[in-house]
Amino acid sequence: MSARIADLLSEGMKVLGAAGIEAPGREARLLLAIAAKVPPAVMIGFPERPVDDSGVAGYRELVRRRADREPVSHLTGEREFWSLPFFVSRDVLDPRPDSEALIAAVLGEVGDRGADLRILDLGTGSGCLLLTLLRELPNALGWAIDLSAAALAIAGRNAARLGLGDRVAFREGAWTAALTAADPATFDLIVSNPPYIPSGDIAGLAPEVARHEPRLALDGGMDGLEAYRGLAPLLWRHLAPDGLVALEIGLGQAESVSELMTAAGLVPAGRARDLAGRERCLLFRRP
């Protein structure tokens, strides 16, 4: 049955607050706007207005899911990154503002943005890194690799949405083993946001991450460095001379990851910090 806007917001705030949501009022308004298409101005100016049965049912379902700490992006099905819209689901990591540090660092290193670059993205997930770079580098081509077929499906949808479907090839498999004989042997730019959370730390992450994002994309092994150990020799092998590698890293991992890459023959080329001032991206070149 229908219900008033004010009553629904009050109901949602109580449920979300009890679930530990930090701003239950704001999120209740957001969910009502999504489910019942009620503009914020109407919620404020006309709280006595009724919401129809369909809107009430949809709103209560979204409140239930959010109270289970499902990310809002999963409720809407999309997330913004570098001012671009990306489809997301529980099969991919949410694109995060911190990862934009990698994009900015790469663009700062690319001399000619109109060059015919070959870009490889290892563990592409939603495709946010590769597709954003392809938007900024209009003559570049991309190869996106992921172990998850479901993640590649999301990345493919994002490529189509952004008009980049004809400039990217998708490969399912483990790192560079997924490349085919028809693919380039080396690349001008390789990017990766590999799993880097120590296995024992995952349970302590925010519920939105620990319970609703893919463990495959989070779990970096006992010390969080397992993926980097596997990547180091592959990066050297598949990077063109004077090519650039950009790796996202976790808190406190800069020195350890740098040691792994330099031991494989790569040369440090810079570091970038995220919005909180933490080292978030490492750059390397092949001499």
TrEMBL record:
Pfam families: Methyltransf_31, PrmC_N
EC supergroup of this enzyme: transferase
Residues in Release factor glutamine methyltransferase N-terminal domain copies: 7-77
Domain called Methyltransferase: residue spans: 116-193
GO MF, one annotated term: nucleic acid binding
Reaction catalysis annotation: L-glutaminyl-[peptide chain release factor] + S-adenosyl-L-methionine = N(5)-methyl-L-glutaminyl-[peptide chain release factor] + S-adenosyl-L-homocysteine + H(+)
EC number: 2.1.1.297
Domain of life assignment: Bacteria
The keyword Ligase appears for this protein: no
Keywords: Methyltransferase, S-adenosyl-L-methionine, Transferase
KW Aminoacyl-tRNA synthetase (keyword) present: no
Binding positions (substrate): N193, P194, P195, Y196
A biological-process GO annotation: methylation
Signal peptide: none
InterPro entries the record matches: DNA_methylase_N6_adenine_CS (IPR002052), HemK-like (IPR004556), Methyltranfer_dom (IPR025714), N5-glutamine_MTase (IPR050320), PrmC_N (IPR040758), RF_methyltr_PrmC (IPR019874), SAM-dependent_MTases_sf (IPR029063)
Binding site for S-adenosyl-L-methionine: G123, T124, G125, S126, G127, D146, W175, N193
NCBIfam families referenced in this protein's UniProt entry, alphabetically: hemK_fam, RF_mod_PrmC
Family: Belongs to the protein N5-glutamine methyltransferase family. PrmC subfamily.
Function of the protein: Methylates the class 1 translation termination release factors RF1/PrfA and RF2/PrfB on the glutamine residue of the universally conserved GGQ motif.
HAMAP family: RF_methyltr_PrmC
Protein name: Release factor glutamine methyltransferase
Organism of origin: Dongia mobilis
